[in-house]
Every structure is written in C-alpha cells, then in structure tokens.
Amino acid sequence: MAQGHTITIEQGERHVRAVHGDQVLAETGRALELRETGCPTRYYIPADDVRTDLLTPSETHTYCPFKGTASYWSLPGAPDLVWAYPDPKPDVAAIRDHFCFYDVDVS
C-alpha cells in the first residue's frame, strides 16, 4: 500500500441489504466490510447472496492501484450500479467473488 493508505477487510456481523426501486438485489448477514483511507465503508456481498440474474454486465471497467480492475453491472435505468473485482490484488483477495453496491441498508 502507498504510504498513509490502508485497506482493512473484516467479516461483518451486520445485516446488509441492497434494494433498487422495489427489487431486493442482495441480502446477507455475511458481507465483508472494507475500509479504505479516504473512502466510506463498503460492504462486499458474497455472489451467492446477490440476484445476479437481475444484473447485466456493463462495458465499464475501472482500475484501482490497491484493489485491481473492477467490472460493473447495471439494471435498466441504473448504469454501473454494482461492481466487483474478479481478480483482486493479493492484499485484498478476500473480496473475490463478492459484489459491492453504492447504496445499501445496514442493520
């Protein structure tokens, strides 16, 4: 990691739910909590707990020097709503096979 930049990943104990409109896209008690310097806490949800059948792969890809290349998925009217790191950097390998949403409900 760059000096002063940290990423921590912990097994979360909270209930995490991603909803768009009236559709539940993901719901889990097994999300990983990723904390990164300068960013809000992100919840990475196991693929088994995500309604991937509702998502369409996007052409969008972004690169993070700390996590690797992210791929995105969309819903009609909601482009690039979800992302994942199919081949994350070794320091964050735990997020492989997990999806992240911009907005989630946490309880």
UniProtKB/TrEMBL annotation:
Domain spans labelled DUF427: 16-103
Signal sequence segment: none
Taxonomy, superkingdom: Bacteria
Keyword Transferase recorded: yes
One Pfam family of this chain: NTP_transf_9
Keyword Transferase: yes
GO molecular function: transferase activity
InterPro entries in UniProt: DUF427, DUF427_sf
Sorted UniProt keywords: Transferase
Record's protein name: Nucleotidyltransferase domain-containing protein
Source organism (scientific name): Streptomyces pluripotens
